[in-house]
Amino acid sequence: MLRQTVRAGRVALGVSLVAIGVVLALPGVPGPGIPIVFGGLSVLSTEFHWARRLRDEMRRGFSRLKGGSHGG
Hints:
Elements: H1 2-24, H2 33-44, H3 49-66
Helix pairs in contact: 1-2, 2-3
């Protein structure tokens, strides 16, 4: 029972962070939207493979924007 409660808590936290981050990433809304979305995906990646892939794609995209190489 505790395992399902912890998992539900992680999913709720991750979805909440992604939703808040998306709102903060809208034009005209001040706030660190993209890092919050990344944090939410990091929480969700502990439970879902699709979130892990999306988080890794975001990390690679930021690395390319920065001009650095992907460190693995």
